[in-house]
Amino acid sequence: MHLIYCFILFVTVQWSYVNGDCGVVSKSEWDGLNPAHVQYLPRPVDLVIIAHTVTPTCNTDQRCAELVRNIQTNQIENLGFWDIGYNFIIGGNGKVYEGAGWLHVGAHTRGYNKKSLGIAFLGNFNNDPLSSSMINALKELLKCGVENGHLTSDYHVVAHRQLIATESPGRKLYNEIRSWPNWMEDVSSIKN
């Protein structure tokens, strides 16, 4: 019996390390659908693409989960995605929601999905105020990603707008991330 307990503990610790939940609200917690298909993302990743959803904002757990579910439903039913396109989504409540997660290829930036993580902020940051809890949630997620081997220690952060024709992640969020030490101003070396 003791051997079985030790084995279960070992598997649990290994699973936690591989998935590195990092305090992320899991799909089961926000009542998300399972993906129709998955493709595994080679890790560690060295590129993080920051976007915004251009949806309403949210401040409560209930409203943020509802918005994430709506995005997933739209992307699966109307756009034909296998799952929600972002790897992670950050709500105005300062929580990070699991999308495709650390392990799976997302569908956030055509031509870059197989080599990056796409992280979206719920809202329109051309207009909406950016909260410190949202920024801190992203910083903690990235730190945890490095600690758990999902991101290289020298990963680069870029804005969605640097890679495709979009205003994403909005002026306010774009201005914020441009001051970060991992910011990549010149994307010519990675541009498709």
Automatic annotation (TrEMBL):
Residues 33-170 form the N-acetylmuramoyl-L-alanine amidase domain. CDD domains: PGRP. The keyword Disulfide bond applies. This is Peptidoglycan-recognition protein. Keywords: Disulfide bond, Immunity, Innate immunity, Signal. InterPro entries: Amidase/PGRP_sf (IPR036505), Amidase_domain (IPR002502), Peptidoglycan_recognition (IPR017331), PGRP (IPR015510), PGRP_domain_met/bac (IPR006619). Residues 22-164 form the Peptidoglycan recognition protein family domain. The gene is LOC113515510. SUPFAM superfamilies: N-acetylmuramoyl-L-alanine amidase-like. Residues 1-20 form the signal peptide.
